[in-house]
């Protein structure tokens, strides 16, 4: 079975991720290593890193994935934004290495009118510059997108082209988001459509580059190009697709992480994970 988990909060201390994960029954964890809506952040203190390590060990050393800041755009046409994006990515990779994170999920960027080819070329240059300047064992996992606006990476072919253009391609992989694939026009709500999407990934990228999955239902219909997540089974994709994917032997021990809406009682992820495990064991 896949390592089922969720994005969890780290308010107060990054080490709190593990207690929060245990509370919802997660076998894997996704975190932000800094505020995702700010460029800068103070460095981790030695005490914070030691506390993080103790908590991780105490909770059985679960798989940890990080998600990069939403501000980063490695295809930015504004020189200052591009500089900030590259600096931010270097900082996040450094933080990930300090925390022993398995991979950093990154949105490929937006071309902002320059065109897909130009945007992919710019992103590849940025990735090469960043990865050449920082030696870290943490790979960058490029996430497929919903195809909204000028955002890059809605098709496996685009992610493949970006990886192929990078000199540092050995340090690149992908994160596959079910909601994004559905919004981009892949019929992952059917068993045949899900397999077609996975075959496209295998053909153009290679399944060995899959670092993790984001398990998200979609609030909007197939091909909407709108990135709005829904609770598993309550959106347009439906529960069956997540059972097929999580039960796929090809992805045993691969983190599959919820990024679905959470309400006031904070128990939606616990219910989603329990529901999914129950369906898998039926």
From TrEMBL:
<keyword id="KW-0378">Hydrolase</keyword>
<comment type="function">
    <text>Endonuclease IV plays a role in DNA repair. It cleaves phosphodiester bonds at apurinic or apyrimidinic (AP) sites, generating a 3'-hydroxyl group and a 5'-terminal sugar phosphate.</text>
</comment>
<dbReference type="InterPro" id="IPR036237">
    <property type="entry name" value="Xyl_isomerase-like_sf"/>
</dbReference>
<dbReference type="InterPro" id="IPR013022">
    <property type="entry name" value="Xyl_isomerase-like_TIM-brl"/>
</dbReference>
<dbReference type="InterPro" id="IPR001719">
    <property type="entry name" value="AP_endonuc_2"/>
</dbReference>
<feature type="binding site">
    <location>
        <position position="259"/>
    </location>
    <ligand>
        <name>Zn(2+) 2</name>
    </ligand>
</feature>
<keyword id="KW-0479">Metal-binding</keyword>
<feature type="binding site">
    <location>
        <position position="177"/>
    </location>
    <ligand>
        <name>Zn(2+) 2</name>
    </ligand>
</feature>
<dbReference type="Pfam" id="PF01261">
    <property type="entry name" value="AP_endonuc_2"/>
</dbReference>
<feature type="binding site">
    <location>
        <position position="143"/>
    </location>
    <ligand>
        <name>Zn(2+) 1</name>
    </ligand>
</feature>
<keyword id="KW-0255">Endonuclease</keyword>
<keyword id="KW-0234">DNA repair</keyword>
<keyword id="KW-0227">DNA damage</keyword>
<dbReference type="GO" id="GO:0003677">
    <property type="term" value="F:DNA binding"/>
</dbReference>
<dbReference type="GO" id="GO:0008081">
    <property type="term" value="F:phosphoric diester hydrolase activity"/>
</dbReference>
<comment type="similarity">
    <text>Belongs to the AP endonuclease 2 family.</text>
</comment>
<feature type="binding site">
    <location>
        <position position="107"/>
    </location>
    <ligand>
        <name>Zn(2+) 1</name>
    </ligand>
</feature>
<feature type="binding site">
    <location>
        <position position="143"/>
    </location>
    <ligand>
        <name>Zn(2+) 2</name>
    </ligand>
</feature>
<dbReference type="InterPro" id="IPR018246">
    <property type="entry name" value="AP_endonuc_F2_Zn_BS"/>
</dbReference>
<dbReference type="GO" id="GO:0008833">
    <property type="term" value="F:deoxyribonuclease IV (phage-T4-induced) activity"/>
</dbReference>
<feature type="domain" description="Xylose isomerase-like TIM barrel">
    <location>
        <begin position="18"/>
        <end position="278"/>
    </location>
</feature>
<feature type="binding site">
    <location>
        <position position="180"/>
    </location>
    <ligand>
        <name>Zn(2+) 3</name>
    </ligand>
</feature>
<feature type="binding site">
    <location>
        <position position="229"/>
    </location>
    <ligand>
        <name>Zn(2+) 3</name>
    </ligand>
</feature>
<feature type="binding site">
    <location>
        <position position="214"/>
    </location>
    <ligand>
        <name>Zn(2+) 2</name>
    </ligand>
</feature>
<protein>
    <recommendedName>
        <fullName>Probable endonuclease 4</fullName>
        <ecNumber>3.1.21.2</ecNumber>
    </recommendedName>
</protein>
<keyword id="KW-0862">Zinc</keyword>
<feature type="binding site">
    <location>
        <position position="227"/>
    </location>
    <ligand>
        <name>Zn(2+) 3</name>
    </ligand>
</feature>
<keyword id="KW-0540">Nuclease</keyword>
<feature type="binding site">
    <location>
        <position position="67"/>
    </location>
    <ligand>
        <name>Zn(2+) 1</name>
    </ligand>
</feature>
<dbReference type="GO" id="GO:0003906">
    <property type="term" value="F:DNA-(apurinic or apyrimidinic site) endonuclease activity"/>
</dbReference>
<dbReference type="GO" id="GO:0008270">
    <property type="term" value="F:zinc ion binding"/>
</dbReference>
<dbReference type="GO" id="GO:0006284">
    <property type="term" value="P:base-excision repair"/>
</dbReference>
């Amino acid at each position: 079975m896949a390592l089922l988990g969720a994005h969890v909060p780290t308010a107060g201390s990054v080490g709190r991720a593990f207690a929060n994960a245990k509370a919802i029954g997660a076998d894997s964890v996704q975190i932000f290593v800094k505020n995702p809506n700010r460029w800068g952040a103070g460095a981790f203190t030695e005490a914070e890193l030691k506390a993080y390590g103790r908590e991780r060990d105490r909770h059985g050393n679960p798989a940890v994935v990080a998600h990069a800041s939403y501000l980063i755009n490695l295809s930015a046409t504004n020189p200052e934004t591009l500089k900030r994006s590259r600096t931010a990515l270097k900082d996040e990779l450094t933080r990930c290495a300090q925390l022993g994170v398995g991979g950093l999920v990154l949105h490929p960027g937006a071309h902002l009118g320059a065109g897909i080819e130009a945007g992919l070329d710019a992103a590849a240059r940025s990735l090469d510059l960043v990865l050449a300047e920082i030696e870290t064992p943490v790979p960058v996992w490029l996430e497929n997108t919903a195809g909204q606006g000028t955002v890059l990476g809605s098709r496996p072919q685009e992610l493949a082209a970006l990886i192929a253009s990078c000199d540092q391609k050995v340090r690149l992989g992908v994160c596959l988001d079910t909601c994004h694939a559905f919004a981009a026009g892949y019929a992952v709500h059917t068993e045949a459509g899900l397999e077609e999407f996975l075959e496209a990934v295998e053909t153009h990228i290679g399944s060995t580059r899959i670092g993790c999955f984001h398990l998200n239902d979609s609030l909007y219909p197939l091909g909407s190009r709108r990135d709005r997540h829904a609770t598993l089974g309550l959106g347009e994709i439906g529960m069956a697709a997540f059972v097929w994917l999580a039960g796929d032997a090809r992805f045993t021990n691969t983190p599959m992480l919820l990024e679905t809406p959470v309400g006031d009682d904070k128990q939606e992820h616990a219910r989603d994970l329990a529901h999914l495990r129950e369906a898998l064991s039926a």
